[in-house]
């Protein structure tokens, strides 16, 4: 089977959860007689670089509009690959649609990771990306979602797409070695990823004021704290207990292993990979009570109303103060982990391709 993927996510991001998702699939496809390729002339994506030789676009040079130029160049590569037609399945990697005149009757698959742009129109680029995704959903032959919660959201917004949707859970890959991290706080709760908009980080910060003074909050990724965040920490009296680090994958999993808990207060998610990553390391997730998290965390996590910082603190305190509860949740996580396996994700994705052929 010959699989063609487009350039979109590999033009836009050096690191991203979606590009990682596709590269995990590609790595599994290598042992499944699937000949995959990404239609781009250049890419700066770190995950793709690990799998296949790829020319980087102006490495070491940054300027406004660089990604837009790269996207336009790689769009030419994708349209040429589509026109040539030497593939069996076309799987688009992000929201921009492909009209039937470009896919030329070949099976067209998309993965919709979440519906955040539809749910939060105030997000930057939300209006454009939601409009693009609507057309992608219209033209695609199959739509993969990483959770039933995301599938339900999609079908509620686009009921005409119901028969196209297939739910395939994402996987998790534990690094072969964990790299120790210098400077970790003694006792800390970990937060991973961006903190802006619907990620609702303010609730996590406000919860910290109710916890013992020896408990710290470690934020991994998401960029340096903004001036408004620093002001918030100061107003809460927690400015010495909140830290930000940029860690590679092996360091991140080390940080999960030594954390007291994961805090994930998001208002919406499509899957929530940090939940599964934390569970794999014995780090108990404390999650906002949304459908996606209930599905993924199941009985291995504690939940709180998303905007209730006091309830968030209470859930964290339960994990911190009750070893028996923590052990029960860790044991439940061990039972959940077989659900999140990239090999099974790839096998189920292959079944979707075979349906179309």
Summed up, what is this model?
By secondary structure, the protein is α/β, with parallel strands linked by helices.
How would you describe this protein?
The protein has 357 residues and is an alpha/beta fold. It has 2 domains: 2-171 and 341-356, 3-Layer(aba) Sandwich (Rossmann fold), CATH 3.40.50; 187-338, Rossmann fold, CATH 3.40.50. The protein is 45% helix and 14% strand. The protein is built from 16 helices and 12 strands. Helix 2 packs across helix 16, helix 9 (201-208) runs parallel beside helix 10 and helix 9 packs across helix 14. The longest helix is centred in the N-terminal third of the chain and has 19 residues, at 66-84. The chain is globular, with a radius of gyration of 21 Å.
Distance between the termini: 10 Å
Please compute the radius of gyration using only Cα atoms.
21 Å
How would you characterize the largest beta sheet? 6 strands, parallel
SSE order: EHHEHHEHEHHEHEEHEHEHEHEHEHHH
Structure classification? alpha/beta
Stretches where pLDDT is under 50 for at least 5 consecutive residues are none
Rounded average pLDDT: 96
- Our estimate of the beta-strand percent is 5-15%
The percent range for helix content is 40-55%
Q: CATH class of the largest domain, please?
A: Alpha Beta
Shape: globular
Give the strand line-up of the largest sheet. 2-1-3-4-5-6
Tally of strands: 12
CATH level 4 superfamily of the largest domain: Glycogen Phosphorylase B
């Amino acid at each position: 089977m010959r699989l063609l993927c487009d350039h979109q996510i590999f033009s836009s991001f050096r690191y991203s959860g979606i590009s990682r998702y596709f590269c995990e699939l590609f790595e599994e496809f290598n042992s499944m007689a699937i000949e995959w390729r990404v239609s781009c002339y250049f890419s700066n994506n770190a995950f793709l670089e690990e799998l296949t030789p790829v020319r980087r676009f102006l490495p070491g040079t940054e300027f406004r509009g660089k990604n837009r130029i790269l996207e336009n160049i790689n769009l030419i590569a994708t349209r040429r690959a589509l026109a040539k037609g030497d593939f069996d399945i076309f799987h688009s990697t992000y929201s921009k649609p492909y009209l039937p005149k470009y896919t030329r009757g070949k099976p067209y698959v998309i993965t919709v990771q979440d519906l955040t742009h539809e749910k939060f129109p105030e997000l930057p680029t939300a209006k454009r990306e939601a409009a693009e995704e609507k057309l992608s959903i219209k033209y695609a032959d199959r739509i993969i979602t990483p959770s039933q919660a995301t599938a339900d959201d999609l079908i509620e917004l686009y009921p005409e797409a119901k028969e196209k949707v297939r739910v395939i859970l994402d996987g998790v890959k534990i690094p072969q070695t964990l790299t120790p991290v210098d400077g970790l706080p003694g006792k800390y709760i970990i937060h991973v990823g961006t903190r802006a908009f619907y990620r609702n980080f303010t609730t996590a910060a406000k919860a910290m004021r109710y916890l013992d003074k020896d408990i710290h909050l470690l934020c991994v990724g998401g960029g340096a704290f903004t001036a408004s965040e620093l002001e918030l920490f100061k107003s809460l009296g927690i400015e010495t207990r909140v830290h930000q680090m940029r860690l590679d994958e092996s360091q991140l999993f080390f940080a999960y292993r030594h954390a007291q808990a994961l805090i994930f207060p998001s208002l919406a998610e499509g899957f929530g990979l940090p939940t599964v990553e934390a569970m794999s390391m014995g780090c108990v997730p404390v999650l906002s009570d949304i459908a996606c998290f209930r599905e993924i965390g199941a009985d291995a996590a504690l939940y709180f109303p998303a905007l209730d910082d006091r309830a968030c603190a209470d859930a964290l305190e339960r994990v911190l103060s009750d070893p028996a509860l923590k052990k029960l949740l860790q044991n439940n996580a061990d039972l959940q982990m077989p659900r999140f396996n990239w090999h099974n994700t790839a096998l189920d994705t292959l079944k979707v391709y075979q349906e179309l052929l």
